[in-house]
Structures are given as structure tokens and as C-alpha cells.
Amino acid sequence: MTNGSAPTDDAATTSALAKAATGISGFDEITLGGLPDGRPTLVCGGPGCGKTLFAMTFLVNGATLFDEPGVFMSFEEASEDLVQNVVSLGYDVQSLIDEKRLVLD
In this structure, is residue 5 part of a structural domain? Predict the structure, then answer.
């Protein structure tokens, strides 16, 4: 890229930052590969905006698609409630917990 010019197509489709795929359809594409690899990521927003859904999807995909264990910490919802809430999405979180691939706290 030269001074004052628009980015090239190559610059728009690549990222110098290593990424960890989330397995979330569409998200990995718009973030050019997923979340920053090896770095903590804070997901914030108001009630009902999808923070828990995003986090649980990321963790379930990590365990099932990428063989990566995960930890979910909640300050408001009990672990049992979280497990029950995502059953409707087809996530068998209890099995992942039993297999020690996922920890809820």
C-alpha cells in the first residue's frame, strides 16, 4: 500500500495476527480467521445480546471440532441452568463436562 492509497485486495483478506477459528458460521469469515490466538477475549454487551450463546458455541465448537478444552465462568447463572439452557441448541454440554473437555464454574 502506498501513502494515501486504498488497501489492496490482499491486505483486506489477510491478517498478520494469528487467529483461532471459532467454528461459528460467518464469524470466522468477517474476522479474517476467528479470535486472536493465544490472547484473552472479553465478550461484553447488554442483557440478551448473545454473550452466553456466543461463548457456549465457541466452547462447544472448540471441544468438538478442534479438540480444545474450555472453561466457562458465569457470575450470574448456575452451571446446571447453563447446561439446560443450551440443550435446545443441540449442545450436549453435560457429556463434554463428563469427558473433562469443558468446565463450567
Answer: no
Instruction: Flag whether 94 is in a domain.
Output: yes
9-53 pLDDT, tens per residue?
Answer: 454 445 589 999 999 999 999 999 999 999 999 999 999 999 999
Q: Establish if 37 belongs to a structural domain.
A: no
Start-end of H helices in 1-105:
9-13, 27-30, 51-65, 79-87, 93-98
Report residue 76 as a C-alpha cell. 450470574
Name the grid cell of 91. Answer: 449442545
C-alpha cell at 80: 446446571
Compute the distance between CA of residue 17 and CA of residue 34 in angstroms, rounded to an integer: 10
Does 14 reside within a domain? Answer: no
Domain count, the chain: 1
The packing angle between helices 79-87 and 51-65, to 10°, is 80
pLDDT tens per residue, range 55-76: 999 999 999 999 999 999 988 8
